[in-house]
Structure formats: structure tokens, C-alpha cells
Design a protein that fits this description.
The chain is mainly β. It contains 4 helices and 28 strands.
Amino acid sequence: MMKRLAAERVAKLNLRICVGRWLVAAGLFLAVIQSAPAQSSSGFAPERSRPVKERVLPGGFPLKPSLPPSWTIPVEPLGFSPPGPLYLGLRNSLVSLDFIGENRLLFTFRVPGLIHRELKPGETADSEERRIRAVVLTLPDGNVEAEAVWSVHDRSRYLWMLKDGHFLLRDMNNLQQGDAHLLLKPLLQFPGPLLWLELDPSQQFLVSNSLEPAAAPSKPGEVESPLTASATLTEDSQSSSSDTNGDSSSDDNPQPPPDRVVRILRLNSGQVLLVSRVRATVHLPINSEGYLESLRGRAEEWVLNLNFFTGGSRVLGSIDSACAPTNEFISQQEVLVTACDGSGGHKLIAITTGGKILWSDLNRETAIWPILTHSPNGLRLTQETLAVTHPISAFAPLGSDDIKGQLVRVFDAATGEVAFEAPASPIFDDGGNTAISPSGQRVAVLNGGTIQVFELPAPPPLPDVSGKQAAH
């Protein structure tokens, strides 16, 4: 019986749920670092709101922005040249565009060319080094205030912007912090290559995924490993080593330990709060109070469960999705869910931590590969999608001739209304070619050889957890 249950967990639960199990057990540890009072699932019932009418977004591809740009900055004089079509579909991170405050832009991009060098200790022959040029541009004149050239060693995302004008630069196992003058200083070093980062809305905590040898302890100066950290919980050995028939691996043929490590750290100190080995990269949406998991229900139902760091949990509600939904906190009290509608389209559903569904937008099946970002204050969010000529499936795969362009939409987080839309060119299928300012009132888009900056009206305020409108 236990083996059958373990097999069902492996087959049905996604990695967020697996990580959720060891986080629940570590609630007492995190209670030491949290001052908020504990909340339990039995002590708070989510607010049940009336069904929200789903808004179907337009299916056409705009040939020009819905608003004229306030300023344009040519990018060719900065040294930028568009990548060739060879990169389309590989999901490489080739550019980044971010606001530093309201009046500066940080624009980084790959500089074409090969670098020949000898391998450093710990690198392999397939290590890729590429040069990234970074420029800080002032608004509205577009003058270059600072510039630098960096080296990174893979093709994944390398830059995350912080609220205070600083940013995080990831390269291999090193994480550096930079400022508006592009001065870098070491922040954290990991025992192995850093695969992915994400931050909670308050940017107190950092969730990291890294690739690390199973038996290697952390060295002096590195973050704590599963062997040395005081708050370490391993995966459920029964579920992680069971096969589809429910049979656990024997002692004579044990499963190797996972080679990926997920951590929750304090950003300002690097203190490791939780660390565990997992078998694949984990997306773990958190805010300052807890983490969110999606639990499989009946048919296409998924239950959203908010687990508090201080112990206890709260069911926010349920949504229907034909695939495992992805969740993201866009503010302390609002979660954005990306779900599949079963016909090839995807839905954006906004729900408060009080359990109230605010809005639901449906993207047509000819808008694919959604990429989301949001303003630091959580009042607006951007979505980038590829506009294609037909629904993509195993019987109708995507070809380069099927892509019409890349579409950028800006939504009001409180209502889901589209505040702005524009094409982006060239196409970057991994995103990075649009930015939104801290106030949510300025949007920058890389389009047609220029960075176009648009000014939008003030966004509506976010609702509080009870669904009432809150002040800015």
C-alpha cells in the first residue's frame, strides 16, 4: 500500500510539491527568523468571490505600439547588432533591459565574436564564454552614463534587477552585486554552477538552484552545502527512488543522490535558511510569509496552497488547468497563475493571498511562450509572447516561417486590463527586451533598432487581501 502511494506521488506531484514537503517540516526553523504570528489552515477560510468572467485577449498582432513613444534611443551606436535567425527557438538569454529608478536604463547585450582562451580549473571543454556589453542610459537624452564589458559562461539568464538600483550578475558559481556605475563586488559563491535564481517581492529572500557534486562539502567562503548546513532535509527517499511500479531501489543497487541543490537564503547576509537536494531545477514561488504549492485535484483542478514559514497553511482556492500551472508572486498579496486552457491557449489568473480571484485573461492559442515580468511595486506586469500563424502541437510543429513577431502587453495588476501593447523587434524568445519602471508608469521596448520609452497613466491600486481597494 505504501509503495503504491509513493508511486502515485512520483507520477502526479510536481517538484514544487516535493520541495513543499521538506519546507513544512522546517517550519520551526523558519519561525525563529520570522516575527509574524502563526496562521493555520483551520483558522482562516479564504474569501470566496463570485466567478470572474474570463476576458479573451485580442488575437491580432499590432504593427505599431498602441501609444506613441515619448523618447527613442538608437541602439546601433551603442554597439548592439541583432542576432541572426540561428538563435530563434533555442531560448538563449541574449539581452536584458531594466530601469534603474525612473530616469535610467540598464541595457546589456551579447557582443558577437569568439573568445579563445585556456580552460580555468573546474571548467570543461564545452564551457561557453561570451562577452556582454553593459551601458547605463539616462532619460530622456539617452546619454551613456556608465559602460562595462562582462564575461559569462553559459546562455541562460545572467542579470536580475533589484529595487534599490543594484542588480545581481550570475556567472557559473559566482553571484556578484552591481550598482548604477556598473561596479561589481562579490556577493555569494556556490559549490557548483548556479542554474537559476528568483526573489520574493520584498527581496528579502533568494531561492537558488545549483548543480553540485553529491559528496562535496562547501569550502570557506561558499554558501553552506547540504552536508554542512544546520537546516537540511533530504528528499523523501521512498518517493524519489521508487519506480512506476511502486518498487523502491534495492540496497544492492541504490539510486545516486540528486545532483541539484535548492536553497533559500537571506539576500543581505547570505545566510542559508533551507537547503536540500532535488532531481530537477525547482521553481519555488515565495513571499515574505511563506511559499505556494499547486496540489493536483480531480480532473483538471489544481488547488493553490499557501504554506506559512511560521507553520500552518491556507488554501487560496482552485483553478482549472490542462497542465501543471506556474505561480508567481507579483506583490506581497497577489499571485499570478499561468494555466493551460486545453486548446493550446494559456490563461493568466490573478488571485489574492486572501483567496479572492481578481481577474482572468485568456491568450489565444496563437500566442505562445509567455514571459512575465512586473514592476517593483507590483502595480503592473508585462507579458511577452510570440505571435504565430497557427496553434502549435505535435502534429503542427513550430517552424521559423510560422512566427509573425513578438508581442509585448502591459496589464494593470489590479484589474487585468491591457494598458499598453507593442511589437518587439528583433525577436528574443527568452525575453529581456522590455522593461517596466518602479512606478509602473514607464515602459521600455527594444524595437526596430531603437529603445522606445513610453509613458503610461498611473495604474490603479492593488486590492488588499480582503479584496478591497488599497491605497498606493
